[in-house]
Every structure is written in C-alpha cells, then in structure tokens.
Amino acid sequence: xxxxxxxxxxxxxxxxGTGKTTTAAALGLLAAARGRRTIVVEVGEESRLPSIFGIVxxxxxxxxxxxxxxxxxxxxxxxxxxxxxxxxxGRVPGRVLASSGTFQYFAAAAPGAKELVTMVKVWQLTRxxxxxxxxxxxxxxxxxxxxxxxxxxxxxxPRTFGAIARVGPIAGQTRxxxxxxxxxxxxxxxxxxxxxxxxxxxxxxxxxxxxARLGRDLDTVIVNxxxxxxxxxxxxxxxxxxxxxxxDAAAGYASRGEAAPHDGAPGERRAVIDSAVQAARAVHERxxxxxxxxxxxxxxxxxxxGVPYVWGARLDLAAVNAIARRLERQL
Length: 331
Fold this sequence. Notes:
Helices cover 53% and strands 14% of the residues. The protein has 331 residues and is an alpha/beta fold. The protein has an eight-stranded mixed β-sheet with strand order 3-4-2-5-1-6-7-8, sandwiched between helices.
C-alpha cells in the first residue's frame, strides 16, 4: 500500500492547538530519513520550524536547510498576493503597490485570492524542477496548513477561481493545482487531533469538507498526547479499596464520637493514600476518555495513529525525533 510519505504533497491540518506543526516536523524528519528530499511549508508571517533545529528563522519566502534532505519555508499569504499582483503590474514597486488602494481593493474584492496564490506557491514546490539556488527539487512537500476551516478554504480555492479564470496563466496553474489536490496517487491528507470530543468532531468535519470540495478522504488521523492505560481492572479495584479503607476509618472515628487524627504518622499516611488514589483515579479517567475518542474514530474506519504524551517543559528536536520514530512504526 502506498504510504502518505510517498506522495508529492502531504497536507497536515486539524483543530488549532493539537500539535500540527510538531507533527509536520516529525513527518518531515521521517520522510528525510527514508531518503526523500522534503520541505515543510508553514503558512503565515512567522516560521517556527527553524527554531526547533536551533536555526534563526529567516524572512518569509526563504527556503532554509534544516538538515540533510530536509528544508523549511514559510509563506506569508499577504506577501504572496502582493508578489502576484506585482507580476500582473509589471515593474510597479512592491511598496508602491502595497500602499495604493489597488492591493486593498483586490484583496477585498476577490475573497480567497490570498489562499489561491499561497496554494500555487505550494504547487510550484511540488513540481520537482530545479530552481534558482537549488540543484534539485523536492520529492515531498509537507504543508503545515492552518486550522480546519481555513485549511478547507485554501484547498477549495482552486475550484472557486477555476470557475472564474478560464484562460491565462492563472487558469493553467489552477487546473494543475486542482489535479494535484484531487489525485490520491499524488497527494494525501492527515488530520491532527487530541483525544477530546471537540478535536475529534473537527476531524470528522474535515473529512466531510474534503469529500465535498475535493472528493477525497483523510488518509490518516494522528491523535497526539495520549496517556497510557496504566492500571488493569484488578489494580484499579485495589487502588480504590485503599481510598475506601481510609473513608471507613474516618467513619469509624465519627461513629465513636472521636476526632480523626490530623497529625502524626497515621494522619499523614492517610492523606498520602487519599492523594494517590485521587491522582490514579484522575489519570485513569482522562486516559479512558481519550481512548473512547480513539474508538470513535476507528468506528468510522479511519486509519488512526496514536502518539503518546511527551513529558517535558518544551518540545525540542529530541522530542520531535521521538515522535517521528513512533510514527515510523505505524505509517
């Protein structure tokens, strides 16, 4: 079976705050380790990937080599639209065009234009042809797309503009971009979620949006930050019985009209037991809810990949590499 990493374009999206950029970086590392020349594309004014690799982030539009066979670039939609209008306007300087009413008028009058020119730049990266300053093109483009709603707007922009612009260079690029997005052999779609009802629901909505706009399905749903099931049913019964024992002891003191000890070794021991039981109960319940959401996805026949919770103050390169190794075993 063809892997998602064997396509020309891999789109990564999902609910905001689920770890899309980290996942895109891990997928890029995995593809590069498999020998594919890969570039991870971020959308927006800021580029977060280089900092993970200890590299100062460049300005938008500049390709940065992160390590062997792996690069990154950020595409600023406003800048991309301005550059495209400059091409249409000939030699008009960008600062003049940006300060005139033309740019603001066009951006307001053509909703989705920024999304379209952003996707055209992504398509250009997938073409594999050598470009100025680069001896060879890329085998795989990993698009760290915006959150679900905005991502669907970007992915649907070629069809919208294709119905308007039927001739000229933009029409030709739009048709080729649409073919790329609709081709299961050339593109793949990955949703990133957490094990929460809201995030999983958004993944289901993403699936419906892809079908409506592109006739495509999600290839994989990656669920981040999963807690393990630490206790068996027998272990849970034993843990909960400890809590019940402390409650029974407290009830015994009350029935005899005695005050339960609050200091000294017995009281301290009971407090520690109570805290441990409550912590175990909370971790178990959170894990149970997460795995219920995984089951919800699997009932819909999604290919689901679980990524364990990464413990640490921040996600550094070592943590992203660990996630990549986890994905390697399942993709």
